[in-house]
Design goal:
Elements (H helix, E strand, L loop, with lengths): L2 E6 L4 H13 L5 E8 L18 H24 L5 E8 L3 H12 L3 E5 L13 H9 L5 E4 L10 E6 L11 H10 L2 E7 L7 H13 L5 E6 L4 H12 L3 E5 L12 H9 L5 E4 L1
Parallel strand pairs: 1-2, 1-4, 2-3, 4-5, 6-7, 6-9, 7-8, 9-10
Antiparallel strand pairs: 5-10
Length: 279
């Protein structure tokens, strides 16, 4: 069965980069890529608070413009990597982005959402745009891969997986991390985040469980006692020339404990690798 991958696009340079990265990452698999664009009417109507109805002049102009941009995008992708294993589908919607994404995830049984970290109006001072943060927080049906601006694809030889070992691991929630690891023969560098060097009995048991789950995938264990976790993770990634970071985003746990929103944003300011949010 083909891998179903959803990629929102606003036709910006960063969005194009995200598409290219994702099709290269999954070049070995049969994939259906769903390219999603939310219609923008600002250029076609002065009543910005009123969304034009289907069939109106403003609607038809915006839709026609989007279709032309999709054709240009598909041509660009064919020149980049004309992979017979890949099929592309374009979707144009009036829905809010998050709502549209959730609807497509359900309808198409999407396996992964991949998106750039900034849109056409992205600022160098801004971490992941609000759309990306919302997706990483609120999409729980599948993993979300966030690709920083201007990062060229390189085979992920090592994926950093930060954890505090405080929650039990499940094979299902790690399946996409293991899949990428096996696909590219990547090493998964498990990075223990804790200011206390000693593991409790439960933490040790969870570490052994993780070791068992990853037994068929190359992996290694490391400890980080840096007081500034964001800085420590970034230094670890840079010192080992790692190519990706993955974390498990457990509801009401991840963003409120080891990775609070400010920490995730702090990492993002200097993000040098894509970040995979697992659920």
């Amino acid at each position: 069965m083909n891998k179903q991958i959803l990629i929102p696009t606003d036709f910006s340079k960063n969005a194009l980069n995200a598409v290219r990265y994702t099709i290269d990452l999954y070049s070995k698999l049969n994939c259906d890529f769903y390219l999603l664009n939310v219609l923008d009417f600002e250029r076609y109507t002065t009543e910005n608070l009123i969304i034009p109805e289907s069939g109106s002049a403003a609607f038809e102009l915006a839709k026609e413009d989007t279709e032309k941009k999709f054709q240009k995008l598909l041509h660009t992708l064919a020149l980049h990597n004309d992979n017979p294993k890949h099929r592309y589908h374009t979707i144009t919607t009036l829905d809010f982005l998050l709502e549209a994404m959730k609807k497509i995830i359900t309808e198409k049984d999407v396996d992964l959402v991949a998106m750039g970290t900034k849109g056409a109006t992205g600022s160098k001072k801004v971490f992941f745009g609000s759309n990306t943060v919302n997706a990483m927080e609120k999409i729980r049906e599948c993993p979300v891969l966030a690709i920083p601006d201007e990062i060229s694809y390189t085979t992920p030889k090592e994926i950093v997986f930060p954890t505090d070992y405080k929650a039990k691991f499940k094979r299902k929630e790690l399946s996409y991390l293991i899949e990428i690891g096996k696909m590219h023969h990547s090493n998964i560098a498990v990075l223990h985040l804790d200011k206390n060097n000693e593991l409790s009995g439960d933490q040790e048991a969870n570490k052994q469980l993780l070791n068992t789950i990853l037994e068929e995938t190359p992996h290694s264990f490391h400890d980080l006692t840096e007081s500034n976790l964001a800085k420590g993770i970034q230094t670890f990634i840079e010192s080992r020339d790692s190519n990706m970071m993955a974390f498990i985003n457990r509801k009401h746990v991840f963003f409120g404990s080891v990775f609070s929103k400010p920490l995730l944003k702090e990492i993002g300011y200097e993000a040098t690798v894509p970040i995979l949010a697992l659920h």
